[in-house]
Every structure is written in structure tokens, then in C-alpha cells.
């Protein structure tokens, strides 16, 4: 299976309802090339629709590092996981991060463990992650067992 980037184009109608239009492009394209191509393509779509294009975003396909498990272990499904709560710089708000399929062994009752592999996974976000407003995550505050559809 070839890697692709997924571009989502948000379109809003006169009633305020939104739908996304997905476009797939080869992962070999640079971000600058994708932006240039969208700058050419989006005016063509805009002229052909009644709605308004309100945003465009890209999900980039990345290679996974080696050494990870080759198949899922029997245990929690992706609907059963851990919801961590983090503090971030420059805000009084907290950020929640759901991790699907968190191992049952990684809980004490309904609270995620904070030691070993579990603590490393919880704290590993500090190296690069932010909340939706770009505020860097700085501390793991708490967590709980969570179910998501």
C-alpha cells in the first residue's frame, strides 16, 4: 500500500452546515508543492460550488519506526482506553488526550498507572505536543479509564 497525504477541504453552505471534501495526494509531494497545487485548484472548486470554502488541512502519512509489535495483543479494543488530562503553557485550560486500546495492565482500578511504559507514554508528549491553540503541554495531571465509540 502506497503512502498518501490526505487533504480535507471544508465547505460551508448558506445554512451554516459543513461538509469536508477529501483529496488524496502521493506522499512524495512536499508540503510546499501541495500548497501550490491547492492554490491553483481551490479557486476552480470555489467557482463551481454554491458553498464557501472555509478551510483546508492536511494529514501527512509518516513511516513508523521499527521494533514495534507486529500484531495487536488480545485485550482492550480501540473503544476502551485511557483519557489523560494535561496542563499547557499560557492557559488555565487543560487538554485531554485519549489513547485507544490502553492495556488493562496499565490501570489501577480505573486510573492509568504513571510508572514504567505507561508513565513513559503519558509523559512522552512533552517533547513535541501542544493543545489546539499551540500551547505546549507541560504536565500530566490525571487520567481515567474511558470508552469511546
Short description:
17% of the residues lie in helices and 38% in strands.
Keywords:
single chain, 149 residues, alpha+beta, 2 domains, three-stranded antiparallel sheet, 2 helices, 17% helix
Report on the architecture of this protein.
By secondary structure, the chain is an alpha+beta fold. The protein has two domains: 4-59; 80-147, no CATH class. Helix content is 17%, strand content 38%. It has two helices and eight strands. The protein has helices at residues 31-48, 116-123; strands spanning 4-12, 18-26, 52-59, 80-88, 94-100, 107-108, 111-112, 137-147. The chain has a three-stranded antiparallel beta sheet with strand order 2-1-3, with helices on one face. Strands 5-4-8 form a three-stranded antiparallel beta sheet, with no helix packed on it. A hairpin with a 2-residue loop joins strand 6 and strand 7. The radius of gyration is 20 Å and the shape is elongated. The two termini are 27 Å apart. The model has no long low-confidence stretch (mean pLDDT 93).
Furnish the topology, listing elements before pairings:
Elements lengths: L3 E9 L5 E9 L4 H18 L3 E8 L20 E9 L5 E7 L6 E2 L2 E2 L3 H8 L13 E11 L2
Antiparallel strand pairs: 1-2, 1-3, 4-5, 4-8, 6-7
What is the N-to-C order of secondary-structure elements (H for helix, E for strand)?
EEHEEEEEHE
> How many β strands by DSSP?
8
Report how far the terminal alpha carbons are from each other.
27 Å
Mean pLDDT over the full residue set: 93
Fraction in helix: 10-25%
- The number of helical elements comes to 2
Biggest sheet, spatial arrangement of strands: 2-1-3
Shape: elongated
Rg, alpha carbons:
20 Å
Derived from helix and strand composition plus strand pairing, the structural class reads alpha+beta
Low-confidence stretches: none
The portion of residues forming beta strands comes to 35-45%
Biggest sheet details: 3 strands, antiparallel
Give the number of domains: 2
